[in-house]
Prior knowledge:
The complex is a heterodimer of chains A (559) and B (193). Chain A is mainly alpha-helical and 559 residues long. Chain A has helices at residues 4-39, 49-71, 97-124, 148-164, 173-194, 199-206, 209-225, 234-246, 256-269, 271-289, 295-320, 335-338, 344-377, 380-394, 396-419, 422-425, 430-456, 458-492, 498-522, 530-540, 544-557; strands at 125-126, 133-134. Chain B has 2 domains: 10-142, P-loop containing nucleotide triphosphate hydrolases (Rossmann fold, 3-Layer(aba) Sandwich), CATH 3.40.50; 145-188, no CATH class. Chain B is globular.
Amino acid sequence: MRSPAIAIAWEFGQRVRLGMMVLFVYMLVVGTIMLVRFKMGQPVSLGDVGKMVALVVGPVAMTFMYFLGVFSFGFASDLAARESTYPARMFTLPVTTRALAGWPMFYGASAMTVLFLAGEFFLRWEPAGILGRFVVREWGFDGPLMIWPPLLAAVFLAWTQALTWMAYGWRGLRVIVTVLCLISLDASVFVATQYKIPDLVLVAFLLPQLPLAYLAACFAISRARRGDVPDWRGMPARLSRISDVFRRQRDHFPSAARAQMWFEWRQHGRSLPVWVAILLPFELALLFLARDEPEAMTFFTVFGVLLTPPLMAGFVAATVSRSNTSGRDAYGVPPFTATRPLTSAALIAAKLKVTLLSTLATWLLVLVALLLGLALSGTLSVVIQRVNEGIEFFGRSRTVVSMLLGLLALMASTWKRLVHSLFLDLSGREWLIKSSVLLALSLLVIIWPIGRWIHDDRNVLTALLNALPLVLAVLVCVKMSAAAWIATRLYDGRLVSDRTLVTGVAAWLVAVLALFGLFTWFWSTPHVAHYFLLLIAILEIPLARLSAAPLALAWNRHR
Amino acid sequence: MRVFGKDPVADPVADPVAVLSRIGYLSEENDLPGWMNVAGLIRYSRAFYPAWDDAYAEELRQAFALDPAARIRSLSKGQKARAGLLIALAYRPELLVLDEPSSGLDPIVRRDILGAVLRTIAHEGRTVLFSSHLLEEVEQVADHVTMISQGRIVLSAPLSTIKESHRVDGRVPSLDEIFVAHVGTAAAPEPGT
């Protein structure tokens, strides 16, 4: 290799060749099957939305996510760290910063363009003759290839690279900034397509973003090369030092469990309340703008505020499973925690209690801030009026209980999102964690076309609704089987005591029955079978994933 | 393998007090929580060990010159090692495990660590399991030496036995020389040879 460009290309080639081969072989196999079925008189047409999603959109979306990770070096780095995710080993190479930024961006953009063009070609292809032909599709592919989807993918990747290569002052800030920016980009294009903005306008909007992202990436890498990492952690520490003056000498912890709770609270317990507190003023400001607007704006803002904690919990969840954010091994349990004379179950219990406290603190903050915001903006009367209308229509008790249940459901959802991935994150297996993230992201991408397909096709919707109880029953069987297996492993490994196992199962049963009781009271109608409500109650109350957390931690602790 | 008559993998999980509370461990990695201060680290660690000795912990803190209000992240590498050693010693563990404790440290900190090892062995008759690449330090404190190369034990015997068995012409070689003799050189041959 005689040039840095070829060397960098070679490195990326090594990383993506397996994914590219898999995709190429997949398309070859699908195309061959379509040709063979055409010859047999049973053609498979990609004009059908479902087949399009399953055969083309899904694999392309997964490859898109894979490329995002590879070309931004995301798979090999700690995305939540403050430092740049650009590999530090490349900073000492005799290569300009512009080249370090430019070549990965160029190769990534090229790969994305080829991927999306290949997808477009495949969507327009139909078996005919010997090798097939390109056709017009009913749902809009009625002309030359669209330029903006591959351009959007390239811009998406470019901004992902620029934002992930940037250093940040707080841990975890990279994920939030990157996701918000990418969502904004996506939303802009989505709105443009809904309003049928001409393709040329979209191209004019997207194309200048490539050089902008490149400049941002150059800035990020030049800072990282100097070792320049902003540190905003001192800000809350300086505030806490003021309170240290007034703080009396702390007593000793009454127990190891209490000490571990304190440790977990200081590690991550404040993350969710802090992040929500940062977002709340911006959201509540909309109430002041909504004073003179239709009521919909007020309720839109209120719902947005109420959905903020569960949404942010999804981002904060990764910090919950980290025992020590400064450990070299981002997935393993650091020796400081692994050598604590506490059972794995006790370590998990401390995390769960702290996440509960964190959730309660967050919701207290949200409710107080929301009430203040509504009162000061003068929009509280709008909300009260709607509540009174609800009371008149549904009755006082049902309305009040519905509101309380709704609030409880949001709080429970917040806590669940904080802890639902503990069993994965605590396993310490990088392949498991990254695979689950890739799968979740891929599902997010294809959920919209699948949802649209179900919504548009009455037959599919009817079939799905008819099969729903069976689907739920199967899910319940899977959940209970998993829970039984986990309980056996916990018992055999003496990870939890008999008493804890029995208490846990009893508590879960009580929660399920309580939820089932609420459901039957709320939906006392012959149109909804009670067994259906019971299945939903069983699936809603967490069991298997929470129970697996001590198992995952023990597996990680002793490898 | 058994530690205190128990399985060190299964039993620390199921019965941590019986095993882990009797082991003091100083990690090669610097994994003390950076956000804690020294006083908080002592207060937190104390809660896990019934045998924690407050007076001894304070004595060690003063001997190591650790400011109680100092954050762990603001400490130097040597000071972090001392903080880790403090919480490993303060409850007088029956078994002290030191994983490359002197790696990358200046001579003064290395002296503190070796001093702690000697005190633990001499004064309290406890066991210290000490891994190191600095064989001259091992020679100063070890009773029994095990040499490992590429995951295999190449030599394991009391230090005095090793020295005697490798005496040549009245001269006792150093542990470094003995190790090289057993493991051989890993260097590639010079070009042209």
